[in-house]
Design a protein that fits this description.
- It is a single chain.
- By secondary structure, the protein is an alpha+beta fold.
- The protein is 39% helix and 18% strand.
- It is built from ten helices and ten strands.
- The strands form three sheets. The protein has a five-stranded mixed sheet with strand order 3-2-1-9-10.
- Strand 4 and strand 5 form a beta hairpin.
- The protein is elongated and about 85 Å long.
- The N and C termini lie close together (10 Å).
- The model has no long low-confidence stretch (mean pLDDT 90).
- One of its GO terms (cellular component) is mitochondrion.
- InterPro entries: Mrs1/Cce1, RNaseH-like_sf, RNaseH_sf, Ydc2_cat.
- This is Mitochondrial resolvase Ydc2 catalytic domain-containing protein.
- One of its GO terms (molecular function) is crossed form four-way junction DNA binding.
Amino acid sequence: MKILSIDVGIKNLAFCLLCNKEDYDISYNIVCNNNNIPNDSYFIKKWNVVDLSTSEEVVKKCCGKEKKGHCSKPAKYTKNNQCFCIKHAKKEKYVLPSSDLKTSYINKQKLQKLIDIVTKYKILVTIEKPKKADLISLITDFAKENCYEELVKTNASDVDLITIGKNIKLKFDALFLKETNIDHVIIENQISPIANRMKTIQGQIVQYFIMSGINVANIEFISASNKLKEFESAEKTEYKDRKKLGIVKTQETIEHNENFSNMLNYFNTHKKKDDLADSFLQGLWFIKYRI
């Protein structure tokens, strides 16, 4: 039995693939150490968060040097095909991006302001009486030669649905195509009036599993309220409080259940624990009440 639980997102789509002892053993060609574990016990086979806004998975890292090697922190700037975090960018000879060096800014400035910018950055002026156009050209050339380019993160709202659909195909193929069979694909239902875009992505995910060639016996939409029903009080809670509760309950569950305990460090060190928790708890709810 395999259950794939999906929490819909663009930059942070979380999934948890749960399987019972029989499928876990077959998948990894192993036998569980504890023979007393019932065959209907479940294990986590795959659990992660994927970014549908880009086809790339590689996060550019800083190439600055530390005592024990390269920095490897997420890079913020790039120059000459090298990437740097803020700390190491400041140690290089190049200038950090600044609003007064942007073309859109300098084109609007009067002559005296352009002179001030040239003076500030010590830009060499060889023309005796430069005009505004001359200074704009000098500043623009200086910026191209001496300024870092900022690595801009993709805004989820700027990604079109066609790109998202292509990335679903690309990334889900890599993640799930080898599974051959998945008994249940459960997807958090998108019902908010402002979630029309997410509702469309929900449909794209369904269509993927219909057409992928993976043998999926059942696809079902699950109410977002189900995953925390057993843990929430009767009082109404805020979204951020539910997120925190989900993380806590996931930590408690994987810590005290030997079937999941091998995932504790992975979960605790993950940057998107809240999304991982949503997909995991949704899967557990489905196993308890629908299987």
